[in-house]
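## Example pair
The file below holds two records. Each record gives the amino-acid sequence first, followed by its C-alpha coordinate line.
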Amino acid sequence: MTGVTPRGLIQRDRARLWHPYAPASPDLPLWEVESADGVRLLLRGDDGRQHEVVDAMSSWWSVIHGYRHPVLDAAAKRQLDSFSHVMFGGLTHGPAVELAERLVDMAPSAPGRSRLERVFLADSGSVAVEVALKLAVQFQTASGHPQRQRFLSIRGGYHGDTFAAMGVCDPVDGMHSAFPGLLAGNVFAPRPPAAASATPETVQAWAAELRDITAAHSGGLAAIIVEPLLQGAGGMHAYPAECLAMLRQEADRHGLLLIFDEIATGFGRTGELFAADHAGVVPDIMCVGKALTGGYLTLAAMLCTEDIAAAVSGGQAGALLHGPTFMGNPLACAVANASLGIINGGGWRADVGRIAAGLESGLAPARELEAVRDVRTIGAVGVIELHDAVDVTAVTAAAIRHGVWVRPFRNLVYTMPPYISTAADVEQITAGMTAAVAEVHDRVPARTCVPTRLGGAA
Protein backbone atom coordinates (compact mmCIF):
# COMPACT_ATOMS: atom_id res chain seq x y z
CA MET A 1 0.00 0.00 0.00
CA THR A 2 1.20 3.51 -0.76
CA GLY A 3 0.86 6.64 1.30
CA VAL A 4 1.07 4.78 4.63
CA THR A 5 2.83 6.77 7.33
CA PRO A 6 5.14 4.99 9.82
CA ARG A 7 2.69 5.82 12.59
CA GLY A 8 -0.10 4.27 10.57
CA LEU A 9 1.96 1.10 10.01
CA ILE A 10 2.46 0.60 13.74
CA GLN A 11 -1.22 1.18 14.40
CA ARG A 12 -2.11 -1.40 11.75
CA ASP A 13 0.28 -3.85 13.37
CA ARG A 14 -1.35 -3.35 16.76
CA ALA A 15 -4.75 -4.00 15.28
CA ARG A 16 -3.87 -7.31 13.65
CA LEU A 17 -0.61 -8.94 14.79
CA TRP A 18 0.69 -10.93 17.73
CA HIS A 19 4.31 -10.43 18.84
CA PRO A 20 6.44 -12.91 20.82
CA TYR A 21 5.34 -13.32 24.42
CA ALA A 22 3.10 -10.29 24.20
CA PRO A 23 -0.60 -9.54 24.58
CA ALA A 24 -2.74 -8.43 21.67
CA SER A 25 -2.68 -4.91 23.06
CA PRO A 26 -2.87 -1.44 21.50
CA ASP A 27 -0.30 -0.29 24.07
CA LEU A 28 2.46 -2.59 22.80
CA PRO A 29 5.63 -0.51 22.29
CA LEU A 30 6.84 -0.96 18.73
CA TRP A 31 9.48 0.44 16.42
CA GLU A 32 9.37 0.02 12.67
CA VAL A 33 12.58 -1.23 11.03
CA GLU A 34 13.16 0.94 7.98
CA SER A 35 16.51 -0.61 7.02
CA ALA A 36 19.25 -2.87 8.34
CA ASP A 37 22.90 -2.90 7.32
CA GLY A 38 25.98 -4.35 9.00
CA VAL A 39 25.31 -4.16 12.73
CA ARG A 40 22.90 -1.23 12.54
CA LEU A 41 19.14 -0.89 12.36
CA LEU A 42 17.30 2.25 11.32
CA LEU A 43 14.16 2.41 13.47
CA ARG A 44 11.17 4.72 13.46
CA GLY A 45 9.11 5.03 16.59
CA ASP A 46 5.42 5.58 17.18
CA ASP A 47 6.14 9.31 17.34
CA GLY A 48 7.63 9.29 13.84
CA ARG A 49 11.21 9.91 15.00
CA GLN A 50 14.09 7.94 13.51
CA HIS A 51 16.76 6.19 15.58
CA GLU A 52 19.91 4.53 14.25
CA VAL A 53 20.95 1.82 16.69
CA VAL A 54 23.52 -0.94 16.99
CA ASP A 55 21.75 -4.29 17.15
CA ALA A 56 23.04 -5.80 20.39
CA MET A 57 20.79 -8.85 19.96
CA SER A 58 21.85 -10.21 16.54
CA SER A 59 18.09 -10.54 16.01
CA TRP A 60 17.75 -13.11 18.78
CA TRP A 61 21.29 -14.45 18.39
CA SER A 62 21.05 -15.39 14.73
CA VAL A 63 22.53 -12.57 12.59
CA ILE A 64 26.14 -13.38 13.45
CA HIS A 65 27.57 -11.97 10.19
CA GLY A 66 25.49 -8.79 10.23
CA TYR A 67 22.74 -7.59 7.92
CA ARG A 68 23.05 -7.46 4.13
CA HIS A 69 26.23 -9.52 4.11
CA PRO A 70 27.39 -9.66 0.47
CA VAL A 71 28.29 -13.37 0.58
CA LEU A 72 24.91 -14.38 2.01
CA ASP A 73 23.02 -12.02 -0.28
CA ALA A 74 24.79 -13.51 -3.29
CA ALA A 75 24.05 -17.07 -2.18
CA ALA A 76 20.34 -16.29 -1.85
CA LYS A 77 20.20 -14.63 -5.25
CA ARG A 78 21.99 -17.52 -6.97
CA GLN A 79 19.57 -20.04 -5.50
CA LEU A 80 16.56 -17.92 -6.42
CA ASP A 81 17.75 -18.00 -10.03
CA SER A 82 17.54 -21.81 -9.88
CA PHE A 83 14.63 -22.73 -7.58
CA SER A 84 13.56 -21.60 -4.12
CA HIS A 85 11.75 -24.69 -2.89
CA VAL A 86 10.95 -28.29 -3.70
CA MET A 87 9.49 -30.97 -1.47
CA PHE A 88 12.06 -33.20 0.23
CA GLY A 89 9.97 -36.36 0.01
CA GLY A 90 11.49 -38.46 -2.76
CA LEU A 91 13.59 -35.55 -4.05
CA THR A 92 16.96 -34.11 -3.12
CA HIS A 93 19.15 -31.19 -4.19
CA GLY A 94 22.69 -29.89 -3.95
CA PRO A 95 22.26 -27.30 -1.18
CA ALA A 96 20.80 -29.85 1.26
CA VAL A 97 23.48 -32.47 0.58
CA GLU A 98 26.27 -29.92 0.87
CA LEU A 99 24.81 -28.59 4.12
CA ALA A 100 24.62 -32.06 5.66
CA GLU A 101 28.24 -32.73 4.70
CA ARG A 102 29.38 -29.40 6.17
CA LEU A 103 27.54 -29.99 9.44
CA VAL A 104 28.98 -33.48 9.84
CA ASP A 105 32.49 -32.17 9.20
CA MET A 106 32.05 -29.40 11.80
CA ALA A 107 30.32 -31.44 14.50
CA PRO A 108 32.09 -32.23 17.80
CA SER A 109 34.21 -35.36 17.75
CA ALA A 110 36.45 -37.26 20.15
CA PRO A 111 38.50 -40.46 20.07
CA GLY A 112 36.45 -43.49 20.94
CA ARG A 113 33.07 -41.82 20.40
CA SER A 114 30.76 -42.35 17.46
CA ARG A 115 30.61 -39.33 15.19
CA LEU A 116 27.45 -37.38 14.41
CA GLU A 117 26.94 -38.49 10.82
CA ARG A 118 23.22 -38.35 10.06
CA VAL A 119 21.38 -35.03 9.57
CA PHE A 120 17.67 -34.17 9.74
CA LEU A 121 16.86 -30.68 8.40
CA ALA A 122 14.04 -28.97 10.30
CA ASP A 123 12.04 -25.74 10.10
CA SER A 124 13.10 -24.20 13.42
CA GLY A 125 14.94 -24.86 16.64
CA SER A 126 11.83 -26.04 18.44
CA VAL A 127 11.10 -28.51 15.66
CA ALA A 128 14.69 -29.80 15.77
CA VAL A 129 14.23 -30.48 19.50
CA GLU A 130 10.90 -32.20 18.84
CA VAL A 131 12.59 -34.44 16.29
CA ALA A 132 15.46 -35.19 18.68
CA LEU A 133 13.04 -36.26 21.42
CA LYS A 134 11.00 -38.42 19.04
CA LEU A 135 14.19 -40.00 17.73
CA ALA A 136 15.35 -40.87 21.26
CA VAL A 137 12.05 -42.60 22.08
CA GLN A 138 12.03 -44.45 18.78
CA PHE A 139 15.63 -45.56 19.38
CA GLN A 140 14.83 -46.94 22.82
CA THR A 141 11.78 -48.77 21.47
CA ALA A 142 13.78 -50.24 18.59
CA SER A 143 16.45 -51.30 21.11
CA GLY A 144 13.95 -53.27 23.18
CA HIS A 145 13.09 -50.63 25.78
CA PRO A 146 9.60 -49.35 24.88
CA GLN A 147 9.03 -48.24 28.48
CA ARG A 148 11.68 -45.55 28.10
CA GLN A 149 9.46 -42.59 27.20
CA ARG A 150 10.64 -39.79 29.50
CA PHE A 151 13.54 -37.36 29.58
CA LEU A 152 15.95 -36.03 32.16
CA SER A 153 16.81 -32.35 31.96
CA ILE A 154 18.12 -29.71 34.36
CA ARG A 155 16.39 -26.81 36.01
CA GLY A 156 16.69 -23.46 34.26
CA GLY A 157 16.61 -24.96 30.78
CA TYR A 158 14.75 -23.71 27.72
CA HIS A 159 14.33 -25.78 24.55
CA GLY A 160 11.50 -24.14 22.61
CA ASP A 161 7.79 -23.40 22.62
CA THR A 162 6.26 -26.48 21.01
CA PHE A 163 4.72 -29.08 23.32
CA ALA A 164 7.44 -31.71 23.60
CA ALA A 165 10.08 -28.98 23.83
CA MET A 166 8.11 -27.21 26.56
CA GLY A 167 7.99 -30.50 28.43
CA VAL A 168 11.78 -30.46 28.91
CA CYS A 169 11.96 -26.76 29.81
CA ASP A 170 12.23 -25.65 33.43
CA PRO A 171 9.13 -26.97 35.23
CA VAL A 172 8.83 -23.91 37.48
CA ASP A 173 9.95 -20.91 35.44
CA GLY A 174 8.90 -22.38 32.10
CA MET A 175 5.38 -22.55 30.72
CA HIS A 176 4.23 -25.73 32.44
CA SER A 177 1.66 -24.05 34.66
CA ALA A 178 -0.17 -22.59 31.66
CA PHE A 179 -0.85 -26.02 30.18
CA PRO A 180 -1.77 -28.36 33.04
CA GLY A 181 -2.23 -31.94 31.98
CA LEU A 182 -0.85 -31.43 28.47
CA LEU A 183 2.90 -31.56 29.05
CA ALA A 184 4.76 -34.78 29.65
CA GLY A 185 5.93 -35.51 33.18
CA ASN A 186 9.70 -35.48 32.78
CA VAL A 187 12.50 -35.60 35.35
CA PHE A 188 14.62 -32.61 36.37
CA ALA A 189 17.97 -32.46 38.10
CA PRO A 190 19.16 -29.30 39.87
CA ARG A 191 20.75 -26.56 37.82
CA PRO A 192 24.55 -26.95 37.90
CA PRO A 193 26.48 -24.38 39.95
CA ALA A 194 27.39 -21.11 38.25
CA ALA A 195 30.70 -21.31 36.43
CA ALA A 196 32.09 -18.20 38.07
CA SER A 197 31.52 -19.36 41.64
CA ALA A 198 31.72 -23.15 41.29
CA THR A 199 34.20 -25.07 43.42
CA PRO A 200 35.24 -28.73 43.19
CA GLU A 201 33.00 -29.36 46.19
CA THR A 202 29.88 -27.74 44.69
CA VAL A 203 30.40 -29.49 41.36
CA GLN A 204 30.79 -32.87 43.06
CA ALA A 205 27.71 -32.23 45.20
CA TRP A 206 25.72 -31.48 42.05
CA ALA A 207 27.11 -34.60 40.38
CA ALA A 208 26.01 -36.71 43.35
CA GLU A 209 22.45 -35.38 43.05
CA LEU A 210 22.53 -36.02 39.31
CA ARG A 211 23.62 -39.62 39.88
CA ASP A 212 20.90 -40.25 42.44
CA ILE A 213 18.13 -38.80 40.28
CA THR A 214 19.29 -40.61 37.15
CA ALA A 215 19.55 -43.94 38.96
CA ALA A 216 16.10 -43.54 40.49
CA HIS A 217 14.40 -42.92 37.13
CA SER A 218 16.70 -44.56 34.57
CA GLY A 219 14.31 -47.40 33.77
CA GLY A 220 11.82 -44.99 32.24
CA LEU A 221 14.23 -42.51 30.66
CA ALA A 222 15.04 -42.31 26.97
CA ALA A 223 17.63 -39.54 27.07
CA ILE A 224 19.21 -36.61 28.88
CA ILE A 225 18.74 -33.24 27.18
CA VAL A 226 20.56 -30.02 28.15
CA GLU A 227 21.82 -26.76 26.76
CA PRO A 228 25.58 -27.30 27.08
CA LEU A 229 27.58 -24.78 29.11
CA LEU A 230 25.15 -21.86 28.75
CA GLN A 231 21.42 -21.85 29.42
CA GLY A 232 19.91 -19.14 27.25
CA ALA A 233 16.32 -18.00 27.64
CA GLY A 234 16.14 -19.72 31.03
CA GLY A 235 18.36 -17.06 32.57
CA MET A 236 21.72 -16.79 30.78
CA HIS A 237 23.24 -19.17 33.33
CA ALA A 238 26.69 -20.58 32.56
CA TYR A 239 27.97 -23.67 34.31
CA PRO A 240 31.31 -25.53 34.40
CA ALA A 241 32.31 -27.50 31.31
CA GLU A 242 33.18 -30.50 33.48
CA CYS A 243 29.45 -30.94 34.15
CA LEU A 244 29.05 -31.98 30.52
CA ALA A 245 31.47 -34.86 31.07
CA MET A 246 29.43 -35.92 34.11
CA LEU A 247 26.24 -35.89 32.04
CA ARG A 248 27.99 -38.02 29.43
CA GLN A 249 29.04 -40.52 32.12
CA GLU A 250 25.51 -40.82 33.50
CA ALA A 251 24.01 -41.32 30.05
CA ASP A 252 26.52 -44.09 29.31
CA ARG A 253 26.05 -45.69 32.72
CA HIS A 254 22.31 -46.14 32.23
CA GLY A 255 22.03 -46.67 28.48
CA LEU A 256 20.54 -43.24 27.82
CA LEU A 257 21.12 -41.00 24.84
CA LEU A 258 22.70 -37.60 25.46
CA ILE A 259 21.12 -34.69 23.56
CA PHE A 260 22.86 -31.31 23.38
CA ASP A 261 20.67 -28.36 22.39
CA GLU A 262 23.27 -26.10 20.72
CA ILE A 263 20.68 -23.88 19.06
CA ALA A 264 21.80 -20.79 21.00
CA THR A 265 25.41 -21.80 21.68
CA GLY A 266 26.50 -23.28 18.37
CA PHE A 267 28.77 -21.74 15.74
CA GLY A 268 31.18 -19.93 18.03
CA ARG A 269 29.03 -17.94 20.42
CA THR A 270 30.70 -19.23 23.61
CA GLY A 271 34.27 -19.07 22.30
CA GLU A 272 34.43 -22.58 20.82
CA LEU A 273 32.72 -23.74 17.65
CA PHE A 274 30.24 -25.66 19.81
CA ALA A 275 29.77 -25.43 23.55
CA ALA A 276 30.42 -29.18 23.74
CA ASP A 277 33.96 -28.52 22.55
CA HIS A 278 34.82 -26.80 25.84
CA ALA A 279 34.62 -30.22 27.51
CA GLY A 280 35.62 -32.47 24.62
CA VAL A 281 32.25 -34.22 24.97
CA VAL A 282 30.36 -35.66 22.01
CA PRO A 283 26.58 -36.05 22.38
CA ASP A 284 24.57 -38.77 20.68
CA ILE A 285 22.18 -36.18 19.26
CA MET A 286 22.77 -32.47 18.67
CA CYS A 287 20.38 -29.70 17.63
CA VAL A 288 21.51 -26.51 15.89
CA GLY A 289 19.62 -23.51 14.52
CA LYS A 290 19.47 -19.72 14.95
CA ALA A 291 22.85 -18.71 13.48
CA LEU A 292 22.81 -21.59 10.98
CA THR A 293 21.72 -19.31 8.11
CA GLY A 294 23.26 -16.16 9.57
CA GLY A 295 19.73 -15.06 10.46
CA TYR A 296 18.53 -14.89 6.86
CA LEU A 297 15.96 -17.69 6.85
CA THR A 298 14.49 -20.09 9.35
CA LEU A 299 16.34 -23.41 9.37
CA ALA A 300 17.57 -25.87 11.97
CA ALA A 301 19.11 -29.30 12.01
CA MET A 302 19.34 -32.38 14.19
CA LEU A 303 22.44 -34.54 13.97
CA CYS A 304 22.79 -38.06 15.35
CA THR A 305 25.14 -41.03 15.18
CA GLU A 306 24.87 -43.64 12.46
CA ASP A 307 24.12 -46.30 15.08
CA ILE A 308 21.02 -44.43 16.22
CA ALA A 309 19.87 -43.87 12.65
CA ALA A 310 20.34 -47.55 11.81
CA ALA A 311 18.46 -48.73 14.89
CA VAL A 312 15.47 -46.50 14.21
CA SER A 313 15.44 -47.32 10.50
CA GLY A 314 15.48 -51.02 11.36
CA GLY A 315 12.76 -50.72 14.01
CA GLN A 316 9.09 -51.50 13.66
CA ALA A 317 8.23 -48.05 12.28
CA GLY A 318 11.01 -48.32 9.71
CA ALA A 319 11.51 -44.56 9.64
CA LEU A 320 11.99 -41.47 11.76
CA LEU A 321 8.40 -40.28 12.10
CA HIS A 322 8.67 -36.63 11.16
CA GLY A 323 8.60 -34.73 7.86
CA PRO A 324 8.00 -30.95 7.65
CA THR A 325 6.61 -29.45 4.44
CA PHE A 326 9.59 -27.11 4.15
CA MET A 327 12.18 -29.68 5.20
CA GLY A 328 15.49 -29.03 3.44
CA ASN A 329 14.29 -25.79 1.85
CA PRO A 330 16.87 -25.13 -0.90
CA LEU A 331 16.97 -21.37 -0.40
CA ALA A 332 17.63 -21.70 3.33
CA CYS A 333 20.19 -24.46 2.76
CA ALA A 334 22.06 -22.38 0.18
CA VAL A 335 22.35 -19.44 2.56
CA ALA A 336 23.33 -21.78 5.41
CA ASN A 337 26.16 -23.15 3.28
CA ALA A 338 27.40 -19.63 2.65
CA SER A 339 27.17 -18.82 6.36
CA LEU A 340 29.08 -21.94 7.36
CA GLY A 341 31.64 -21.12 4.70
CA ILE A 342 32.31 -17.81 6.42
CA ILE A 343 32.62 -19.59 9.77
CA ASN A 344 34.99 -22.18 8.32
CA GLY A 345 37.18 -19.30 7.20
CA GLY A 346 38.25 -19.13 10.85
CA GLY A 347 37.85 -15.44 11.55
CA TRP A 348 35.04 -16.01 14.04
CA ARG A 349 37.45 -17.00 16.83
CA ALA A 350 39.30 -13.70 16.74
CA ASP A 351 35.97 -11.85 16.41
CA VAL A 352 34.50 -13.56 19.46
CA GLY A 353 37.70 -12.96 21.41
CA ARG A 354 37.61 -9.25 20.57
CA ILE A 355 33.95 -9.00 21.55
CA ALA A 356 34.53 -10.96 24.77
CA ALA A 357 37.27 -8.56 25.87
CA GLY A 358 35.12 -5.55 25.00
CA LEU A 359 32.10 -6.88 26.87
CA GLU A 360 34.11 -7.65 29.99
CA SER A 361 35.67 -4.20 30.19
CA GLY A 362 32.67 -2.29 28.86
CA LEU A 363 30.17 -3.76 31.29
CA ALA A 364 32.44 -3.30 34.32
CA PRO A 365 30.86 0.07 35.31
CA ALA A 366 27.47 -1.65 35.67
CA ARG A 367 28.86 -3.51 38.68
CA GLU A 368 28.74 -0.24 40.61
CA LEU A 369 24.99 0.19 40.32
CA GLU A 370 22.77 -0.53 43.30
CA ALA A 371 20.19 -2.29 41.13
CA VAL A 372 22.72 -4.72 39.66
CA ARG A 373 23.12 -8.16 41.18
CA ASP A 374 25.74 -9.56 38.80
CA VAL A 375 27.62 -8.85 35.59
CA ARG A 376 28.90 -11.82 33.61
CA THR A 377 30.33 -12.65 30.21
CA ILE A 378 31.09 -15.76 28.21
CA GLY A 379 32.43 -15.50 24.69
CA ALA A 380 30.30 -13.04 22.74
CA VAL A 381 27.62 -12.90 25.45
CA GLY A 382 27.32 -10.15 28.06
CA VAL A 383 24.75 -10.04 30.85
CA ILE A 384 23.66 -7.45 33.42
CA GLU A 385 21.51 -9.18 36.01
CA LEU A 386 19.33 -7.00 38.23
CA HIS A 387 18.00 -7.76 41.70
CA ASP A 388 14.45 -7.15 40.47
CA ALA A 389 12.53 -7.52 37.21
CA VAL A 390 13.57 -5.27 34.34
CA ASP A 391 11.21 -2.51 33.25
CA VAL A 392 11.43 -3.79 29.68
CA THR A 393 9.65 -0.86 28.03
CA ALA A 394 11.63 1.82 29.85
CA VAL A 395 15.03 0.13 29.50
CA THR A 396 14.46 -0.58 25.81
CA ALA A 397 13.50 3.03 25.15
CA ALA A 398 16.47 4.34 27.17
CA ALA A 399 18.88 2.08 25.29
CA ILE A 400 17.50 3.31 21.96
CA ARG A 401 18.18 6.89 23.05
CA HIS A 402 21.78 5.79 23.53
CA GLY A 403 21.90 4.18 20.09
CA VAL A 404 21.51 0.53 21.10
CA TRP A 405 18.80 -2.05 20.49
CA VAL A 406 18.33 -4.54 23.34
CA ARG A 407 15.44 -6.76 24.32
CA PRO A 408 15.63 -7.49 28.07
CA PHE A 409 13.68 -10.25 29.79
CA ARG A 410 13.01 -11.24 33.38
CA ASN A 411 15.74 -9.48 35.39
CA LEU A 412 18.34 -9.51 32.61
CA VAL A 413 19.65 -6.90 30.23
CA TYR A 414 21.97 -8.79 27.92
CA THR A 415 23.73 -8.69 24.57
CA MET A 416 24.81 -11.22 21.93
CA PRO A 417 26.24 -8.93 19.24
CA PRO A 418 27.03 -9.88 15.64
CA TYR A 419 30.56 -11.20 15.23
CA ILE A 420 31.42 -8.37 12.85
CA SER A 421 30.93 -5.82 15.64
CA THR A 422 33.98 -3.60 15.99
CA ALA A 423 35.55 -2.55 19.28
CA ALA A 424 33.70 0.76 18.91
CA ASP A 425 30.40 -1.06 18.33
CA VAL A 426 30.89 -3.13 21.47
CA GLU A 427 31.81 -0.01 23.42
CA GLN A 428 28.59 1.64 22.27
CA ILE A 429 26.58 -1.46 23.21
CA THR A 430 28.02 -1.77 26.70
CA ALA A 431 27.80 1.96 27.40
CA GLY A 432 24.19 2.04 26.20
CA MET A 433 23.19 -0.97 28.29
CA THR A 434 24.79 0.43 31.42
CA ALA A 435 23.31 3.89 30.89
CA ALA A 436 19.83 2.46 30.29
CA VAL A 437 19.94 0.42 33.50
CA ALA A 438 21.25 3.42 35.44
CA GLU A 439 18.58 5.76 34.10
CA VAL A 440 15.67 3.43 34.70
CA HIS A 441 16.64 1.38 37.73
CA ASP A 442 19.52 3.02 39.54
CA ARG A 443 21.22 6.36 39.12
CA VAL A 444 23.38 6.15 42.24
CA PRO A 445 26.64 4.11 42.27
CA ALA A 446 26.73 1.90 45.34
CA ARG A 447 28.00 -1.55 46.29
CA THR A 448 30.29 -3.40 43.96
CA CYS A 449 29.30 -6.88 42.82
CA VAL A 450 31.97 -9.48 42.26
CA PRO A 451 33.40 -9.34 38.70
CA THR A 452 32.32 -12.41 36.79
CA ARG A 453 34.03 -13.82 33.71
CA LEU A 454 32.29 -17.10 33.02
CA GLY A 455 34.30 -20.18 32.14
CA GLY A 456 35.07 -20.92 28.53
CA ALA A 457 35.13 -17.36 27.17
CA ALA A 458 37.52 -16.76 24.34
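Second record, same layout:
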Amino acid sequence: MSVVVYSMPACPQCTATCRELSKRRLDYEVVDLTADHEALAMVRGLGYKQAPIVVAGREHWSGYRPDRIKALAAAAVPAQV
Protein backbone atom coordinates (compact mmCIF):
# COMPACT_ATOMS: atom_id res chain seq x y z
CA MET A 1 0.00 0.00 0.00
CA SER A 2 1.24 3.44 -0.87
CA VAL A 3 1.44 5.94 2.01
CA VAL A 4 2.00 9.63 1.36
CA VAL A 5 2.43 12.26 4.06
CA TYR A 6 1.66 15.76 2.84
CA SER A 7 3.54 17.99 5.24
CA MET A 8 4.94 21.43 5.92
CA PRO A 9 8.35 22.47 7.29
CA ALA A 10 8.65 22.88 11.07
CA CYS A 11 5.32 21.11 11.65
CA PRO A 12 5.43 19.15 14.94
CA GLN A 13 2.46 16.95 13.97
CA CYS A 14 4.11 16.17 10.63
CA THR A 15 7.33 15.16 12.38
CA ALA A 16 5.42 13.00 14.88
CA THR A 17 3.49 11.32 12.06
CA CYS A 18 6.65 10.46 10.14
CA ARG A 19 8.34 9.23 13.32
CA GLU A 20 5.37 6.95 14.10
CA LEU A 21 5.29 5.57 10.54
CA SER A 22 9.03 4.83 10.74
CA LYS A 23 8.64 3.25 14.19
CA ARG A 24 6.02 0.91 12.75
CA ARG A 25 8.31 0.15 9.78
CA LEU A 26 5.85 1.47 7.21
CA ASP A 27 7.25 2.85 3.96
CA TYR A 28 6.04 6.33 3.10
CA GLU A 29 6.75 9.30 0.91
CA VAL A 30 6.80 12.89 2.18
CA VAL A 31 5.47 15.71 -0.02
CA ASP A 32 6.20 19.29 1.07
CA LEU A 33 3.03 21.31 0.56
CA THR A 34 5.00 24.57 0.47
CA ALA A 35 6.93 23.35 -2.58
CA ASP A 36 4.28 21.36 -4.46
CA HIS A 37 1.33 23.55 -5.42
CA GLU A 38 -0.51 20.71 -7.19
CA ALA A 39 -0.35 18.60 -4.02
CA LEU A 40 -1.64 21.56 -2.00
CA ALA A 41 -4.58 21.96 -4.38
CA MET A 42 -5.29 18.22 -4.15
CA VAL A 43 -5.43 18.14 -0.33
CA ARG A 44 -7.51 21.29 -0.26
CA GLY A 45 -9.85 19.58 -2.72
CA LEU A 46 -10.22 16.77 -0.18
CA GLY A 47 -11.30 19.42 2.33
CA TYR A 48 -8.17 19.53 4.47
CA LYS A 49 -6.70 22.71 5.91
CA GLN A 50 -4.30 21.26 8.49
CA ALA A 51 -1.05 19.36 7.97
CA PRO A 52 -0.13 16.60 7.94
CA ILE A 53 -2.51 14.90 5.58
CA VAL A 54 -1.87 11.17 5.27
CA VAL A 55 -3.14 9.30 2.23
CA ALA A 56 -2.90 5.51 2.51
CA GLY A 57 -4.60 3.71 -0.34
CA ARG A 58 -8.25 4.83 -0.23
CA GLU A 59 -8.00 6.13 3.34
CA HIS A 60 -6.94 9.64 4.27
CA TRP A 61 -6.87 11.78 7.38
CA SER A 62 -5.41 14.95 8.82
CA GLY A 63 -3.30 15.50 11.91
CA TYR A 64 -1.20 13.20 14.04
CA ARG A 65 -3.26 10.01 14.40
CA PRO A 66 -1.25 7.21 16.03
CA ASP A 67 -4.43 5.10 16.17
CA ARG A 68 -4.77 5.21 12.38
CA ILE A 69 -1.07 4.48 11.89
CA LYS A 70 -1.31 1.51 14.25
CA ALA A 71 -4.26 0.19 12.21
CA LEU A 72 -2.24 0.59 8.98
CA ALA A 73 0.63 -1.37 10.49
CA ALA A 74 -1.71 -4.12 11.66
CA ALA A 75 -3.26 -4.36 8.19
CA ALA A 76 0.19 -4.58 6.60
CA VAL A 77 1.19 -7.67 8.62
CA PRO A 78 0.22 -10.89 6.84
CA ALA A 79 -2.10 -13.15 8.83
CA GLN A 80 -0.43 -16.04 10.65
CA VAL A 81 -1.73 -19.49 9.78
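Notes on the second record: Residues 3-76 form a domain with the Glutaredoxin fold (CATH 3.40.30.10). The longest helix spans residues 12-23.
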